[in-house]
Design a protein that fits this description.
alpha/beta; nine-stranded mixed sheet; 21 strands
């Protein structure tokens, strides 16, 4: 049975507070127009969900609709961050409240707590909720499904609340556990999906200049390792091999004793140096898999830069203070395991290294969200990551907006249909359970890094190159202050320059015509066909057009034969036309 709606207030929609961004103002107005007990706002990281939520809260207090505020956040650091922002908005809340305290201190209008804290004593928090007209802000509400105890806890504690405002900035969970206070409705296929009352995605925020454009700097390379059975194996990070082999190659790349991770960290620091020419306090963040590698990466950065990196570990009681000090300072690098994966506000982060083997869409979106917060127009973000297929797919789908589905789709054409997901989960559990047995026998023997490509706005740029090559520096040296359209223009320009350089280095047959010269350069043709195929797939995902229709339209607009018979220049023209579509210049059918 759905909960009855809260009694509708009799007052008109209040005026929008000054200083809100357009999306915040729209969401604010919609909140008071709907007059529901539950409101779900989905907004991309860095867009300003906290400002929106506290504007709603302050207005509810001013109108005397509520007189108590509860903020529920995933971590201790985030609840303190909320308390600071709430105090600035004139709503002092206690982030140090403990379950054993019973009541919050005088001078506060409420408390900031964690989901785990509520789950431990839900009846205590229910009593506090019932003691006043309570507004509950549930930050990153997808955590309400992290465990049955968390979901059950917040449902038990906050069902009596007068108003509940739920926020999230990342794709919802891939499991089918319903999230408390989120409304689900069936789509045309009968699959129940979460329904947001207001959505503000990354693509929209990028066009509005609210968030930074993100360039993904992908690095491949050759890896060699010895398996637990004693067998020596080798593979490239970008090779199309089995999931097991990819995982082992990925693990080898991230080993701090190899050459891949030091090379990528050095490249990331070069990029950071370029950004700091225009943004002097720009900082970098390395997201590591575990505490051991985090410390090792910090040591490598010290050798590269001569400056100690800030290390943030989840079991360190001083972790929040370390993040705050780094955020307020101007030092170059911070290395963390999970403390900054979600919600933590460090606006000066501009360069990142994704040096973890975690590859869920949720964690990836949370990680990328640490770099997109914009302080002034023109700031860009650059994220370095391994060229493994799963990360390449996530980077290309950064703008995809997904709802939480309660029912498993049954058609393989549905993007949420992953028939092997349960088997993979089981395999992952087994791998973690046996990790202590296999870690000693798995041996990373050798890793070499090479520059692969840049991914931006669903398109790919670059023809690869050695670490330290001119091809790599073309992209590491991109200026640190550019808007999204300027980034796209410059990436295209650098790519064309690389194609010309590559062509000039190749031997030419003076007696052959230009069309024949292009057709016999099979390596270049293969590269361009692959790039065109990936770009067509990305546009199909964005537009809903069939792949064949896109290819036909490109052929109509640029001329030439089918892809299998097209020359290099014809393929380049089609790639360039696709890139125009991605940035809004021209459109199919025009």
């Amino acid at each position: 049975m759905p909960e009855p709606a809260a009694p509708a207030p009799t007052h008109p929609v209040p005026p929008v507070p000054e200083g809100l961004r357009q999306w915040q103002a729209e969401a604010f107005t919609k909140y008071f127009q709907l007059r529901r007990r539950d409101f779900l706002a989905v907004a991309t990281p860095g867009a300003g969900k906290t400002r929106f939520a506290l504007s709603v809260a302050k207005t509810l207090f001013d109108l005397r609709i509520v007189d108590r505020l509860y903020v529920v956040a995933p971590t201790d650091h985030l609840k303190r961050q909320w308390a600071d922002n709430a105090a600035a908005a004139g709503l002092p809340i206690d982030p140090n409240f403990k379950n054993s305290d019973g009541a919050h201190g005088r001078g506060y209008v409420g408390v900031a707590v964690t989901y785990a804290q509520v789950a431990m004593k839900p009846m205590l928090h229910r009593a506090k909720t019932e003691a006043g007209k309570t507004l509950v802000i549930l930050d990153e509400i997808h955590h309400g499904g992290d465990a049955l105890s968390w979901g059950d806890g917040i449902r038990e504690a906050f069902t009596p609340a007068v108003c509940r405002l739920s926020l999230t900035g990342t794709p919802f969970r891939s499991d089918t556990a319903p999230i408390p206070f989120v409304e689900y409705e069936a789509d045309h296929e009968g699959i129940r999906r979460s329904r947001a009352d207001y959505t503000y995605g990354y693509g929209h925020a990028l066009k509005d200049g609210v968030v930074r454009p993100v360039m993904f700097m992908a690095y491949s390379g050759s890896m060699r390792w010895k398996t637990s059975a004693g067998e020596e194996m080798s593979a490239g990070l970008a090779d199309l091999v089995t999931k097991d082999v990819t995982a082992q190659a990925w693990r080898t790349a991230l080993n701090p004793e190899g050459e891949w991770i030091p090379a990528v960290l050095a490249a990331a620091d070069k990029r950071l140096e370029e950004v700091r020419r225009a943004v002097p306090d720009a900082g970098g963040l390395v997201i590591a898999t575990d505490h051991v590698t985090a410390r090792a990466y910090a040591g490598i950065l010290k050798r590269i830069t001569g400056e100690s990196a800030t290390i943030v570990l989840s079991d360190d009681k001083k972790a929040s203070k370390a993040i705050e000090d780094f955020s307020a300072g101007s030092s170059r690098w911070m290395v963390a395991v999970r403390m900054v994966s979600e919600g933590v506000d460090v606006p000066r982060l501009s360069v990142g290294v994704y040096a973890t083997s975690t590859s869920t869409p949720l964690f990836f979106a949370q990680a990328v969200g640490r770099y997109v917060r914009m302080r002034r127009r023109g700031e860009t973000a650059s994220i370095f990551l391994p060229s493994v297929p799963v990360l390449m797919a996530l980077a290309n789908e950064m703008e995809a907006e997904r709802d939480h589905a309660l029912d498993r789709p049954t058609e393989p054409t549905d993007p949420d249909f992953i028939p092997e997901e349960e088997l993979m989960d089981e395999a992952n559990r087994e791998e973690k359970a046996s990790d202590s047995l296999t870690r000693a026998s798995f041996e990373a023997l050798d890793s070499q890094a090479s520059f692969d490509k840049v991914l931006f706005d669903g398109a790919e740029f670059g023809l690869g190159g050695d670490v330290g090559s001119a091809e790599e520096m073309d992209f590491l040296g991109i200026p640190g202050l550019l808007d999204a359209e300027q980034v796209n223009e410059l990436l295209r320009k650098r790519q064309h320059e690389q194609i010309r350089r590559q062509s000039s280095r190749q031997p030419q047959d003076a007696g052959a015509d230009a069309e024949f010269e292009e057709s016999v350069d099979h390596r270049r043709i293969k590269e361009l066909r692959g790039q065109l195929s990936k770009s067509v797939s990305a546009w199909a995902a964005r537009s809903g057009m069939a792949h064949g229709v896109i290819h036909s339209e490109l052929r109509r607009l640029t001329g030439g034969p089918a892809v299998a018979q097209a020359s290099a220049s014809q393929l380049e023209a089609r790639i360039a036309r696709l890139q125009d579509w991605f940035v809004g210049r021209g459109k199919p059918g025009a």
